[in-house]
């Protein structure tokens, strides 16, 4: 049976190619890969094909009668095309040969270890970059044309993190290699290659990123806008079962207290706070800024119309519906039939309407909880328990 070698060729400079990689390439009758990778081996005597798409590479391997070496940048196990190729290669023995990754090379150039470094890629994919950096002491970034190194520095500066130390590397291992270090705010106007790498140091990651969000009423700006209280907020977020990468809507966001808690829970995702009152929107912006929640987006508008342009939600919290409860549910279910929705109600009429909408639209696993909370308040030399109005928390989910 013929062999296909998946070879991690390192940074591109032949000096970073391992001895095992050299032997595999020399033994192959055909080399395949991006044109710039093939150019590093001008003296290879065999056939060569400049291909990028995994399907085209797999066909070239299948059509060639002998052994093939597929040249892959960096390491085959680090954001590599090797994973997809493994699934496509049939009737051929596959041997993966690791190489030097951009992470290991860059950290070596910086004289840094990398066992505790958090890795994020925005090369051809979406990520809440600022949130990831806020969450970790050391973050390594693979940038791309959609989010360049300069754009990352701009986003950090806009989020109040402009003083963080940043290291940027481009054209690593080549004679024109460039490594720049400085504070993020000092690098916003620098020009970097699209495929640069970054290492960002954050000596004080936000504590709530490390576990379940804890958000006290006393921490929030509230003005005269109604606010979902702490106990209700905590249970509502728990009922939604928010995952870190979820997209979440908060409809009728008020002060943004629930929006902030959701953004803390979905720190790798995006949260959209929809509110029709201008004064309330200003409060949401204040609370967003106070917690550095770059993944919280404030939308001024009235639901359901304001929901039409939003991305499909994984979770929806409805704190206020303005009489449009069923239409709000329909808007969410249209974008994601499996969406999970949580609703709070303080009146029996709202409770009745909520149950009717949950059942009428066929939501599953509907749960209703009545929460009556009391909080201690010091009066003179005594602590008195002051009760809050009972609140109904309804939750359920659509069908995939």
Automatic annotation (TrEMBL):
Superkingdom of the source species: Bacteria
Domain spans labelled Tetrapyrrole methylase: 4-187
Pathways involved: Cofactor biosynthesis; adenosylcobalamin biosynthesis
Keyword annotations: Cobalamin biosynthesis, Methyltransferase, S-adenosyl-L-methionine, Transferase
Entry's Gene Ontology molecular function annotations: protein methyltransferase activity
Keyword Glycoprotein attributed: no
Pfam family, one: MTS
CDD domains: AdoMet_MTases, Precorrin-6Y-MT
Biological process (GO), any one: cobalamin biosynthetic process
Residue ranges constituting the Methyltransferase small domain according to the UniProt record: 237-299
InterPro entries for the chain: 4pyrrol_Mease (IPR000878), 4pyrrol_Methylase_sf (IPR035996), 4pyrrole_Mease_sub1 (IPR014777), 4pyrrole_Mease_sub2 (IPR014776), CbiE (IPR012818), Cbl_synth_CobL (IPR006365), Cbl_synth_MTase_CbiT (IPR014008), Cobalamin_biosynth_MTase (IPR050714)
Record Gene3D superfamilies: Cobalt-precorrin-4 Transmethylase, Domain 1, Methyltransferase, Cobalt-precorrin-4 Transmethylase, Domain 2, Vaccinia Virus protein VP39
PANTHER family per record: COBALT-PRECORRIN-6B C(15)-METHYLTRANSFERASE (DECARBOXYLATING), COBALT-PRECORRIN-7 C(5)-METHYLTRANSFERASE
Name by which UniProt lists this protein: Precorrin-6y C5,15-methyltransferase (Decarboxylating) subunit CbiE
Gene that produces this protein: cbiE
